[in-house]
Specification:
Helicase, Ruva Protein, domain 3; Rossmann fold; 16 helices; binds magnesium ion; two-stranded antiparallel sheet; elongated; binds adenosine-5'-triphosphate; single chain; alpha/beta; 10% strand
């Protein structure tokens, strides 16, 4: 709407000299001057209109993308205490307009939470604009966020509206905020304090009304301690933190998540899956899910594509963490060798931890006591090293 209004003003700014005094005769010189002036003004107005048109096209394309993403908005599934707390926190904070900072490993649902906050806020009819703090070089990041004037730098052929201005009236989702370069951190702090942006190469501050939602997979406090992240910005952002624990720490969410994705892919792939093979369920339960819910979703999607009947089955090899050598899948080793190697790998990965959800026993799907038995049998110590090596 703002665009259209300014386009109209641009057009109306052209003085319509023919209506000035239609009856007064003009000398040929006066007429030429008037005509030249009018032509110049018309050219300027035409240029402005095409600039505004391209801006509008940019915004429209952006809006289309967002509408698609929003149509795909899925609820935050999960019955764990942690997920219940997350849903409660979203409801509490959504209406307040406060800055939200979302923590969580990759694939834990940070973007889903950001969308939910926006959807439940009074800004839902306006844009949710997304920027990834890790995606661009420092100078490009500045112009991406704050925009630039025509000619601000080589290659700046047109004025560009930054993401903050684009999000005016709506929400800006700043993903990977922990990766922002120091120079952008300073500028971001300024916007949060003063609620104005300055385009690169511009000298006119533009007021913006934007709600900020930031997300990171980093321990930001540690980044502050090492000087990688500004403490003043951290405190500005850390108004209302929401933490999404990794899936391995909320395994009780697995059944509802699995159901959720099966229902989703039944609909989207036209399948009729109604249950999960017990061996598959066991595999899904035991796995550590380094890629969290995104990885779970991918595994289920893959299985759903293949499944013909009603029972979902997965191939165990899909779940082997990439850091594990693919020994388990080869046949050139004896079964005993394979088992030995798997135990050593698991022990190394869990840094000697046997018990617990992140321990080697859980990784291998064994009882800790069984694992101890096997370690004795194969003479492996808790770090995955041969016992005899240590004894030397
Ligand atoms: N609680 C949940 N219920 C249902 N689906 C979920 C849930 N959490 C995440 N998902 C789904 O998992 C996928 C990953 O989520 P999302 O993109 O929000 O993660 P992220 O934390 O932003 O990941 P990254 O750090 O890699 O960007 C998405 O498809 C999302 O819809
Ligand atoms: Mg994300």
């Amino acid at each position: 709407m703002r665009l259209r209004a300014s386009a109209v003003t641009a057009i109306l700014r052209i003085p319509l000299s023919t209506t000035r005094d239609a009856m007064a005769p003009l000398s040929p010189e006066q007429l030429t001057r008037e005509l030249e002036l009018t032509i110049r003004q018309l050219r300027a107005a035409t240029a402005r209109i095409s600039e505004l048109e391209s801006q509008l096209a940019q915004e429209t394309a952006y809006r289309h993308n967002l509408i698609r993403a929003e149509a795909d908005l899925r609820q935050l599934t999960g019955e764990s205490t942690a997920m219940k707390a997350v849903r409660h926190a979203i409801q509490q904070v959504a209406k307040t307009d406060r800055t939200v900072l979302i923590f969580g490993e990759t694939g834990t649902g940070k973007e889903l939470v950001a969308r939910a906050v926006h959807q439940l806020s009074r800004r839902r009819e306006r844009l949710l604009v997304k920027v990834n703090g890790a995606a661009l070089t420092p100078s490009l990041m500045t112009s991406e966020l704050f925009g630039h004037e025509k000619g601000a730098f080589t290659g700046a052929a047109k004025r560009r509206v930054g993401r903050f201005e684009m999000a005016h009236g709506g929400t800006l989702f700043l993903d990977e905020v922990g990766e922002l370069p120091p120079e952008t951190q300073v500028l971001l702090l300024r916007v949060l304090q003063e609620r104005i942006v300055e385009r690169v190469g511009g000298n006119e501050p533009v007021p913006v009304d934007v709600r900020l939602i930031a997300a990171t997979h980093r321990d930001l406090q540690a980044a502050v301690a090492t000087g990688r992240f500004r403490a003043d910005l951290y405190y500005r952002l850390h108004v209302f933190p929401i933490c999404l624990p990794p899936l391995r720490d909320r395994r009780e969410d697995l059944p509802s998540l699995i159901r959720h994705f099966i229902t989703h892919y039944n609909r989207h792939l036209g399948k009729q899956v109604t249950d999960v093979a017990p061996t598959t369920l066991e595999l899904l339960r035991r796995y550590d899910w380094p890629g969290n819910i995104r990885e779970l979703e991918n595994v289920i999607e893959r299985a759903m594509i293949i499944t013909q009947g009603e029972r979902l089955e997965i191939d165990p090899s899909w779940l082997i963490p990439p850091s594990l050598p693919p020994l388990l899948m080869t046949t050139s080793h004896s079964l005993a060798e394979t088992e030995k190697q798997a135990i050593r790998d698991a022990l190394r990965q869990s840094r000697g931890k046997i018990y617990g959800s992140q321990g080697a026993a859980a990784k291998l799907g064994l009882k800790p006591t069984t694992l101890y038995g096997k370690m004795r049998k194969w003479k492996i110590d808790k770090d995955g090293e041969p016992l005899s090596d240590r004894a030397k």
